[in-house]
């Protein structure tokens, strides 16, 4: 892809090394960096991992909207697998098959996808620094000074639910979490590979679900639950797979390869998302659905909007990016209300009793197929 010729920017001086430094090279950070780089800005991305595909904390499942409206749809075919249906399991392990005409999900070779994103950053002229963690920053006139990096006009925190950028810049911090763990079974095949298998049940997944999915390299199996910092416990994924694995078509006696685990924001956007040329995006900003915990599409859109806003501010004297970051963050009002209800009133018997009824099917289709956006 040919890069645009860089024009002098509004009030541009020579004292800044970068127009924006993005901390974190996952979906939101990559989107922000790419959007800015495409407008000719000088962009640096700091990623603490030496390999962007290691130690992941995402399922990597991409919804149709993200596949068709973002650069993620350009990922190599070898990195994605199309799935067109959902199989929803009640606590009794009875299931309901769900689908919507034309709707699909893409499971991914997630480590491969993150490495591909890193390649895209460098192809677009981004200074990607792997193995470089954000340590500190000092506010200066019209920007930030970062040790070992230099001066930047804007600092973008895309560094996850426990954002160091948020703490250093006195921005809002994520308070409400799910805790998830996921196994990868390389080379394995589900008995029913063309569905996303989702398990509801308070015993193993209070506040969320368990899941099985076929991806390009094998099977991914996960479990998440509401995180209570006063009584924290890890999801018992081994017991869950013994209970639900056969129903979901998981072959017996598999040994997991890669294991992923981490906190997932579920409370909606943080209260103070931006100030003083520091902006949060993605998990750091709480841009994750409180109901489904899906964050790739919304994180990409928000990161992209912020990257474009920085470029518009510097090149065209556009509105403050801090203002755009706030305006383009999804509110999730209805989903936050559903999250509260699920946390306080989750019971197994309604799912068992109502699984095959029209109201439950309708509600599940709204959640999984984004019929209300």
Map the helices and strands:
Layout: E1 18-23, H1 27-38, E2 43-47, E3 62-63, H2 64-69, E4 80-83, E5 85-89, E6 95-99, E7 105-108, H3 110-123, E8 127-130, E9 138-140, E10 143-146, E11 150-157, H4 164-168, E12 177-186, E13 195-200, E14 209-215, E15 218-226, H5 237-244, E16 259-265, E17 274-275, E18 278-280, H6 296-316, H7 321-328, H8 333-345, H9 349-354, H10 358-368
Parallel strand pairs: 1-2, 1-11, 2-8, 5-13, 11-18
Antiparallel strand pairs: 3-7, 4-7, 5-6, 9-10, 10-11, 12-15, 12-16, 13-14, 14-15, 17-18
Which series of helices and strands comes N to C?
EHEEHEEEEHEEEEHEEEEHEEEHHHHH
What is the strand tally?
Answer: 18
The CATH class turns out to be Alpha Beta
Question: Which fold name fills CATH's third level, the topology?
Answer: FAD/NAD(P)-binding domain
Average the pLDDT over all residues and give the rounded result.
92
Pick out the low-confidence regions. Answer: 1-8
- What characterizes the major β-sheet? 8 strands, mixed
Name the beta content range. 25-35%
Distance between the termini: 31 Å
What is the CATH H-level superfamily? FAD/NAD(P)-binding domain
Question: Structural class of the helix and strand makeup?
Answer: alpha/beta
Please tally the helical runs, counting DSSP H or I stretches of 4 or more residues. 10
